[in-house]
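Entry:
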Amino acid sequence: MRLCSLLLSHLCVVVISALEPPPSHHYPLREQDSSSTPDHISPGLFASLERLSRLVDITYCVGTTGITPPFTCASRCKDFPTLDLVTTWNTGPLMSDSCGYIAVDHGTAPTPRVSPITGERNQGEIIVAFRGTYSIANTIVDLSTIPQEYVPYPSPGDGGSETPREPEHICHDCTVHMGFLASWKVTRDVVLPVLKPLHEKYPEYPIHLVGHSLGGAVAALAALELKVIPGWDKLVVTTFGEPRVGNDGFVEYLDSVFELGGVDGRVEERSYRRVTHVDDPVPLLPLSEWGYRSHAGEFFISKSDLPPEPSDIRPCIWDYDPKCIAGSIGEDTKATGYIVAEEGAHEGTDVRTRRLGGIPSRYNLWQLFFAHRDYFWRLGLCVPGGDPIDWGRERYPNFTSADEL
Protein backbone atom coordinates (compact mmCIF):
# COMPACT_ATOMS: atom_id res chain seq x y z
CA MET A 1 0.00 0.00 0.00
CA ARG A 2 2.88 2.37 0.77
CA LEU A 3 4.32 1.75 -2.68
CA CYS A 4 0.94 2.54 -4.31
CA SER A 5 0.70 5.79 -2.32
CA LEU A 6 4.16 6.89 -3.40
CA LEU A 7 3.39 6.02 -7.02
CA LEU A 8 0.12 7.98 -7.05
CA SER A 9 1.86 10.98 -5.48
CA HIS A 10 4.40 10.83 -8.26
CA LEU A 11 1.62 10.74 -10.84
CA CYS A 12 0.22 14.09 -9.68
CA VAL A 13 3.63 15.71 -10.23
CA VAL A 14 3.90 14.15 -13.67
CA VAL A 15 0.45 15.35 -14.70
CA ILE A 16 1.10 18.95 -13.60
CA SER A 17 4.26 19.11 -15.72
CA ALA A 18 2.60 17.52 -18.74
CA LEU A 19 -0.52 19.67 -19.14
CA GLU A 20 -0.96 21.48 -22.45
CA PRO A 21 -2.79 24.70 -23.27
CA PRO A 22 -6.55 24.31 -23.66
CA PRO A 23 -8.08 24.54 -27.15
CA SER A 24 -9.82 27.65 -28.40
CA HIS A 25 -12.70 26.04 -30.31
CA HIS A 26 -15.50 23.81 -29.07
CA TYR A 27 -18.69 22.56 -30.59
CA PRO A 28 -22.03 22.13 -28.81
CA LEU A 29 -23.00 18.58 -28.00
CA ARG A 30 -25.87 16.86 -29.75
CA GLU A 31 -29.17 16.40 -27.99
CA GLN A 32 -29.73 13.00 -26.46
CA ASP A 33 -32.82 10.88 -27.05
CA SER A 34 -32.81 7.43 -25.45
CA SER A 35 -36.49 6.68 -26.02
CA SER A 36 -35.81 3.87 -28.50
CA THR A 37 -32.56 2.56 -27.01
CA PRO A 38 -32.66 -0.68 -24.98
CA ASP A 39 -31.34 -0.50 -21.43
CA HIS A 40 -29.30 -3.71 -21.66
CA ILE A 41 -27.66 -5.97 -24.23
CA SER A 42 -28.59 -9.44 -25.44
CA PRO A 43 -26.91 -12.63 -24.18
CA GLY A 44 -25.40 -13.09 -27.63
CA LEU A 45 -23.62 -9.74 -27.63
CA PHE A 46 -22.60 -10.31 -24.02
CA ALA A 47 -20.92 -13.59 -25.04
CA SER A 48 -19.15 -11.81 -27.89
CA LEU A 49 -17.74 -9.06 -25.70
CA GLU A 50 -16.72 -11.48 -22.95
CA ARG A 51 -14.85 -13.64 -25.43
CA LEU A 52 -13.02 -10.64 -26.87
CA SER A 53 -12.02 -9.50 -23.38
CA ARG A 54 -10.16 -12.79 -22.92
CA LEU A 55 -8.53 -12.42 -26.32
CA VAL A 56 -7.23 -8.95 -25.47
CA ASP A 57 -6.07 -10.18 -22.04
CA ILE A 58 -3.72 -12.56 -23.86
CA THR A 59 -1.87 -9.56 -25.35
CA TYR A 60 -0.27 -8.99 -21.95
CA CYS A 61 1.80 -12.10 -22.58
CA VAL A 62 3.56 -10.28 -25.44
CA GLY A 63 6.70 -8.70 -24.07
CA THR A 64 6.72 -10.99 -21.02
CA THR A 65 6.45 -14.78 -21.27
CA GLY A 66 5.35 -14.61 -24.90
CA ILE A 67 2.89 -16.39 -27.21
CA THR A 68 4.06 -19.32 -29.32
CA PRO A 69 2.50 -21.31 -32.20
CA PRO A 70 0.05 -22.75 -32.66
CA PHE A 71 -1.53 -20.52 -29.97
CA THR A 72 0.09 -21.19 -26.61
CA CYS A 73 0.78 -18.90 -23.67
CA ALA A 74 0.80 -18.78 -19.87
CA SER A 75 -2.60 -17.09 -19.79
CA ARG A 76 -5.92 -17.89 -21.52
CA CYS A 77 -4.70 -19.32 -24.83
CA LYS A 78 -6.08 -22.76 -24.00
CA ASP A 79 -9.57 -21.20 -24.18
CA PHE A 80 -9.07 -20.85 -27.95
CA PRO A 81 -7.99 -24.19 -29.44
CA THR A 82 -9.10 -23.16 -32.96
CA LEU A 83 -6.80 -20.12 -33.19
CA ASP A 84 -3.52 -20.14 -35.10
CA LEU A 85 -0.94 -17.52 -34.22
CA VAL A 86 0.35 -15.56 -37.23
CA THR A 87 2.70 -13.05 -35.58
CA THR A 88 3.35 -10.94 -32.50
CA TRP A 89 4.98 -7.53 -32.24
CA ASN A 90 6.68 -5.47 -29.56
CA THR A 91 7.95 -2.09 -30.73
CA GLY A 92 9.86 -1.23 -27.56
CA PRO A 93 9.45 0.68 -24.28
CA LEU A 94 9.46 4.26 -25.64
CA MET A 95 6.47 6.61 -26.09
CA SER A 96 5.49 4.68 -29.23
CA ASP A 97 5.45 1.39 -27.33
CA SER A 98 3.00 -1.11 -28.80
CA CYS A 99 2.50 -4.83 -28.33
CA GLY A 100 0.03 -7.29 -29.73
CA TYR A 101 -0.62 -10.27 -31.94
CA ILE A 102 -2.42 -11.39 -35.09
CA ALA A 103 -4.16 -14.77 -35.18
CA VAL A 104 -6.55 -16.60 -37.49
CA ASP A 105 -9.51 -18.66 -36.34
CA HIS A 106 -10.52 -21.11 -39.06
CA GLY A 107 -13.63 -21.94 -37.12
CA THR A 108 -13.35 -25.69 -36.67
CA ALA A 109 -15.60 -25.41 -33.61
CA PRO A 110 -18.88 -27.30 -34.05
CA THR A 111 -21.02 -24.18 -33.56
CA PRO A 112 -20.51 -21.40 -36.15
CA ARG A 113 -20.68 -17.78 -35.06
CA VAL A 114 -22.85 -14.99 -36.45
CA SER A 115 -21.19 -11.92 -37.95
CA PRO A 116 -22.56 -8.63 -36.57
CA ILE A 117 -21.77 -6.96 -39.89
CA THR A 118 -23.35 -9.28 -42.46
CA GLY A 119 -25.58 -11.45 -40.25
CA GLU A 120 -24.04 -14.47 -41.92
CA ARG A 121 -23.00 -17.57 -40.01
CA ASN A 122 -19.29 -18.10 -40.48
CA GLN A 123 -16.58 -20.21 -38.99
CA GLY A 124 -13.56 -18.01 -39.63
CA GLU A 125 -12.13 -14.69 -38.45
CA ILE A 126 -8.90 -12.73 -38.23
CA ILE A 127 -7.96 -11.30 -34.83
CA VAL A 128 -5.71 -8.25 -34.42
CA ALA A 129 -5.23 -7.55 -30.70
CA PHE A 130 -3.52 -4.48 -29.20
CA ARG A 131 -2.13 -4.49 -25.66
CA GLY A 132 -2.39 -1.68 -23.15
CA THR A 133 0.57 -0.40 -21.16
CA TYR A 134 2.19 -1.96 -18.10
CA SER A 135 3.30 1.41 -16.76
CA ILE A 136 0.63 3.43 -14.96
CA ALA A 137 2.98 6.44 -14.84
CA ASN A 138 3.49 6.29 -18.61
CA THR A 139 -0.27 6.07 -19.02
CA ILE A 140 -0.82 9.39 -17.27
CA VAL A 141 2.03 11.09 -19.14
CA ASP A 142 0.70 9.80 -22.44
CA LEU A 143 -2.82 11.01 -21.65
CA SER A 144 -1.68 14.61 -21.29
CA THR A 145 0.58 15.00 -24.29
CA ILE A 146 0.29 17.43 -27.21
CA PRO A 147 -2.43 16.95 -29.86
CA GLN A 148 -1.27 16.57 -33.45
CA GLU A 149 -2.95 17.15 -36.80
CA TYR A 150 -4.59 13.99 -38.11
CA VAL A 151 -4.53 12.94 -41.76
CA PRO A 152 -6.38 9.62 -42.15
CA TYR A 153 -4.95 8.70 -45.55
CA PRO A 154 -1.13 8.59 -45.55
CA SER A 155 0.80 9.88 -48.53
CA PRO A 156 3.47 7.75 -50.28
CA GLY A 157 6.10 9.52 -48.18
CA ASP A 158 4.31 8.52 -44.98
CA GLY A 159 3.92 4.84 -45.67
CA GLY A 160 1.21 4.93 -48.35
CA SER A 161 1.90 2.93 -51.49
CA GLU A 162 0.19 5.45 -53.76
CA THR A 163 -1.67 8.73 -53.71
CA PRO A 164 -5.00 8.05 -51.98
CA ARG A 165 -8.24 8.32 -53.89
CA GLU A 166 -10.76 10.99 -52.98
CA PRO A 167 -12.19 9.75 -49.66
CA GLU A 168 -15.89 9.36 -49.00
CA HIS A 169 -15.48 10.86 -45.52
CA ILE A 170 -13.51 14.04 -44.86
CA CYS A 171 -11.81 14.78 -41.54
CA HIS A 172 -12.20 18.53 -40.95
CA ASP A 173 -9.83 20.25 -38.50
CA CYS A 174 -8.89 16.93 -36.90
CA THR A 175 -6.27 16.53 -34.21
CA VAL A 176 -5.37 13.42 -32.25
CA HIS A 177 -3.22 12.50 -29.28
CA MET A 178 0.40 12.62 -30.45
CA GLY A 179 1.48 9.55 -28.47
CA PHE A 180 -1.37 7.39 -29.81
CA LEU A 181 -0.64 8.43 -33.39
CA ALA A 182 3.08 7.75 -32.96
CA SER A 183 2.28 4.30 -31.59
CA TRP A 184 0.08 3.45 -34.59
CA LYS A 185 2.65 4.76 -37.10
CA VAL A 186 5.24 2.41 -35.67
CA THR A 187 2.80 -0.49 -35.36
CA ARG A 188 1.37 -0.16 -38.89
CA ASP A 189 4.76 -1.08 -40.38
CA VAL A 190 4.43 -4.44 -38.64
CA VAL A 191 0.70 -5.04 -38.86
CA LEU A 192 -0.22 -4.01 -42.41
CA PRO A 193 2.34 -6.17 -44.28
CA VAL A 194 0.96 -9.21 -42.43
CA LEU A 195 -2.71 -8.28 -42.44
CA LYS A 196 -3.07 -7.45 -46.14
CA PRO A 197 -1.99 -10.92 -47.39
CA LEU A 198 -4.25 -12.53 -44.78
CA HIS A 199 -7.20 -10.48 -46.00
CA GLU A 200 -6.46 -11.48 -49.59
CA LYS A 201 -6.19 -15.14 -48.62
CA TYR A 202 -9.35 -15.15 -46.49
CA PRO A 203 -11.52 -12.34 -47.93
CA GLU A 204 -14.67 -13.80 -46.37
CA TYR A 205 -13.23 -13.68 -42.84
CA PRO A 206 -14.23 -10.63 -40.76
CA ILE A 207 -11.31 -8.79 -39.16
CA HIS A 208 -11.70 -8.13 -35.43
CA LEU A 209 -9.59 -5.32 -34.01
CA VAL A 210 -9.58 -5.46 -30.24
CA GLY A 211 -7.68 -3.36 -27.72
CA HIS A 212 -7.53 -2.55 -24.02
CA SER A 213 -6.59 0.84 -22.55
CA LEU A 214 -4.02 2.58 -24.76
CA GLY A 215 -4.30 -0.40 -27.10
CA GLY A 216 -7.90 0.66 -27.69
CA ALA A 217 -6.73 4.04 -28.95
CA VAL A 218 -4.28 2.39 -31.35
CA ALA A 219 -7.03 0.02 -32.51
CA ALA A 220 -9.23 3.05 -33.28
CA LEU A 221 -6.57 4.62 -35.50
CA ALA A 222 -5.84 1.29 -37.17
CA ALA A 223 -9.53 0.68 -37.86
CA LEU A 224 -9.99 4.08 -39.46
CA GLU A 225 -7.07 3.55 -41.81
CA LEU A 226 -8.25 0.08 -42.83
CA LYS A 227 -11.82 1.27 -43.30
CA VAL A 228 -11.02 4.43 -45.25
CA ILE A 229 -8.04 3.57 -47.46
CA PRO A 230 -8.51 -0.02 -48.74
CA GLY A 231 -12.23 0.16 -47.94
CA TRP A 232 -12.41 -3.11 -45.99
CA ASP A 233 -16.02 -3.59 -44.96
CA LYS A 234 -15.82 -6.66 -42.72
CA LEU A 235 -14.23 -4.83 -39.83
CA VAL A 236 -15.40 -5.15 -36.22
CA VAL A 237 -13.73 -2.97 -33.60
CA THR A 238 -14.07 -3.68 -29.87
CA THR A 239 -12.20 -1.68 -27.26
CA PHE A 240 -12.16 -1.87 -23.47
CA GLY A 241 -11.32 1.23 -21.44
CA GLU A 242 -10.34 3.18 -24.55
CA PRO A 243 -9.13 6.73 -23.80
CA ARG A 244 -10.22 9.74 -25.82
CA VAL A 245 -8.21 9.83 -29.03
CA GLY A 246 -8.92 13.20 -30.62
CA ASN A 247 -10.88 16.43 -30.82
CA ASP A 248 -14.40 17.26 -32.03
CA GLY A 249 -13.44 17.00 -35.68
CA PHE A 250 -11.88 13.59 -35.21
CA VAL A 251 -14.90 12.30 -33.26
CA GLU A 252 -17.32 13.46 -35.93
CA TYR A 253 -15.13 11.78 -38.55
CA LEU A 254 -14.97 8.44 -36.71
CA ASP A 255 -18.71 8.49 -36.00
CA SER A 256 -19.36 9.10 -39.69
CA VAL A 257 -17.03 6.39 -40.96
CA PHE A 258 -18.51 3.73 -38.65
CA GLU A 259 -22.07 5.10 -38.88
CA LEU A 260 -22.38 5.49 -35.12
CA GLY A 261 -24.76 8.44 -35.08
CA GLY A 262 -28.48 8.36 -34.49
CA VAL A 263 -30.86 6.14 -32.58
CA ASP A 264 -32.49 3.47 -34.70
CA GLY A 265 -32.82 0.52 -32.33
CA ARG A 266 -30.00 -1.37 -34.06
CA VAL A 267 -27.26 -0.59 -31.58
CA GLU A 268 -26.11 -4.21 -31.33
CA GLU A 269 -25.27 -4.21 -35.04
CA ARG A 270 -22.61 -1.54 -34.59
CA SER A 271 -19.27 -2.40 -36.11
CA TYR A 272 -17.53 -0.34 -33.41
CA ARG A 273 -18.13 -1.25 -29.73
CA ARG A 274 -16.42 1.02 -27.18
CA VAL A 275 -16.87 -0.77 -23.84
CA THR A 276 -16.55 1.32 -20.68
CA HIS A 277 -16.85 0.48 -16.98
CA VAL A 278 -18.20 2.53 -14.10
CA ASP A 279 -15.39 4.21 -12.09
CA ASP A 280 -12.84 3.70 -14.88
CA PRO A 281 -11.22 7.13 -15.36
CA VAL A 282 -9.43 6.36 -18.64
CA PRO A 283 -12.44 6.64 -21.04
CA LEU A 284 -12.78 10.28 -19.88
CA LEU A 285 -9.09 11.09 -20.33
CA PRO A 286 -7.54 13.19 -21.74
CA LEU A 287 -9.91 15.77 -20.28
CA SER A 288 -12.43 17.67 -22.37
CA GLU A 289 -10.74 20.80 -20.99
CA TRP A 290 -7.72 19.79 -23.04
CA GLY A 291 -9.77 19.62 -26.22
CA TYR A 292 -10.54 15.88 -26.38
CA ARG A 293 -13.92 14.25 -26.98
CA SER A 294 -15.38 10.75 -26.62
CA HIS A 295 -16.78 9.15 -29.76
CA ALA A 296 -20.02 7.18 -30.03
CA GLY A 297 -20.47 3.41 -29.95
CA GLU A 298 -20.27 3.10 -26.17
CA PHE A 299 -21.48 0.09 -24.18
CA PHE A 300 -21.42 0.91 -20.46
CA ILE A 301 -20.89 -1.67 -17.71
CA SER A 302 -22.73 -0.17 -14.74
CA LYS A 303 -21.84 -2.85 -12.18
CA SER A 304 -18.71 -2.09 -10.17
CA ASP A 305 -17.79 -5.64 -9.19
CA LEU A 306 -17.06 -8.70 -11.27
CA PRO A 307 -18.79 -10.50 -12.84
CA PRO A 308 -21.34 -8.45 -14.81
CA GLU A 309 -24.49 -9.78 -16.45
CA PRO A 310 -26.22 -8.71 -19.69
CA SER A 311 -28.59 -6.55 -17.63
CA ASP A 312 -25.56 -4.61 -16.31
CA ILE A 313 -24.42 -3.45 -19.76
CA ARG A 314 -26.20 -0.51 -21.36
CA PRO A 315 -25.99 0.50 -25.05
CA CYS A 316 -25.32 4.25 -25.12
CA ILE A 317 -26.31 6.88 -27.66
CA TRP A 318 -24.29 9.53 -29.45
CA ASP A 319 -20.96 10.70 -28.06
CA TYR A 320 -22.12 11.64 -24.55
CA ASP A 321 -24.91 9.75 -22.86
CA PRO A 322 -25.73 10.98 -19.33
CA LYS A 323 -26.71 7.42 -18.39
CA CYS A 324 -23.26 6.10 -19.29
CA ILE A 325 -19.62 6.71 -18.31
CA ALA A 326 -19.66 10.52 -18.55
CA GLY A 327 -22.74 10.87 -16.38
CA SER A 328 -21.57 8.27 -13.88
CA ILE A 329 -18.37 10.12 -13.10
CA GLY A 330 -20.01 13.53 -12.77
CA GLU A 331 -19.03 15.12 -16.07
CA ASP A 332 -21.62 17.65 -17.26
CA THR A 333 -22.58 16.15 -20.61
CA LYS A 334 -24.46 19.25 -21.72
CA ALA A 335 -21.85 21.82 -20.79
CA THR A 336 -18.70 19.92 -21.74
CA GLY A 337 -18.32 21.77 -25.00
CA TYR A 338 -18.14 25.10 -23.23
CA ILE A 339 -16.03 24.30 -20.15
CA VAL A 340 -12.84 25.88 -21.46
CA ALA A 341 -14.49 29.07 -22.66
CA GLU A 342 -16.30 29.59 -19.35
CA GLU A 343 -13.44 28.68 -17.04
CA GLY A 344 -10.86 30.52 -19.10
CA ALA A 345 -12.96 33.67 -18.94
CA HIS A 346 -13.25 33.44 -15.14
CA GLU A 347 -10.98 36.23 -13.93
CA GLY A 348 -8.63 35.47 -16.83
CA THR A 349 -7.35 32.35 -15.07
CA ASP A 350 -5.76 29.52 -17.01
CA VAL A 351 -7.78 26.31 -16.59
CA ARG A 352 -4.58 24.40 -15.82
CA THR A 353 -3.93 26.41 -12.65
CA ARG A 354 -7.44 25.90 -11.26
CA ARG A 355 -7.32 22.11 -10.88
CA LEU A 356 -4.97 20.51 -8.39
CA GLY A 357 -2.88 17.95 -10.22
CA GLY A 358 -4.62 18.79 -13.51
CA ILE A 359 -7.18 15.98 -13.16
CA PRO A 360 -10.19 16.51 -10.85
CA SER A 361 -10.35 14.18 -7.87
CA ARG A 362 -13.68 12.72 -9.06
CA TYR A 363 -11.75 10.71 -11.65
CA ASN A 364 -10.28 8.45 -8.93
CA LEU A 365 -6.95 7.66 -10.54
CA TRP A 366 -6.42 4.80 -8.10
CA GLN A 367 -9.08 2.97 -10.14
CA LEU A 368 -6.42 2.52 -12.83
CA PHE A 369 -5.47 -0.56 -10.82
CA PHE A 370 -9.03 -1.90 -10.53
CA ALA A 371 -12.02 -0.57 -12.55
CA HIS A 372 -9.79 0.09 -15.55
CA ARG A 373 -8.78 -3.56 -15.59
CA ASP A 374 -12.18 -5.09 -14.75
CA TYR A 375 -13.80 -5.88 -18.08
CA PHE A 376 -15.58 -9.23 -17.61
CA TRP A 377 -12.30 -10.47 -16.09
CA ARG A 378 -9.40 -8.59 -14.48
CA LEU A 379 -7.15 -7.90 -17.43
CA GLY A 380 -3.44 -7.29 -17.61
CA LEU A 381 -1.59 -10.20 -16.01
CA CYS A 382 -0.14 -13.09 -18.00
CA VAL A 383 -0.38 -16.02 -15.62
CA PRO A 384 -2.35 -19.30 -15.81
CA GLY A 385 -6.02 -18.56 -15.35
CA GLY A 386 -5.47 -14.81 -15.58
CA ASP A 387 -5.30 -12.51 -12.59
CA PRO A 388 -5.58 -14.35 -9.23
CA ILE A 389 -8.85 -12.52 -8.49
CA ASP A 390 -10.41 -14.64 -11.26
CA TRP A 391 -9.12 -17.97 -9.99
CA GLY A 392 -11.96 -20.30 -9.13
CA ARG A 393 -14.56 -18.25 -10.95
CA GLU A 394 -16.99 -20.17 -13.14
CA ARG A 395 -17.26 -19.40 -16.81
CA TYR A 396 -20.02 -17.08 -17.93
CA PRO A 397 -23.42 -18.42 -19.04
CA ASN A 398 -23.89 -18.88 -22.80
CA PHE A 399 -20.12 -19.33 -23.03
CA THR A 400 -20.47 -21.16 -26.36
CA SER A 401 -23.49 -19.23 -27.62
CA ALA A 402 -24.15 -19.48 -31.34
CA ASP A 403 -24.27 -15.67 -31.40
CA GLU A 404 -20.80 -15.35 -29.95
CA LEU A 405 -18.27 -13.71 -32.23
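Residues 1-35, 335-357, 399-405 have pLDDT under 50 and may be disordered.
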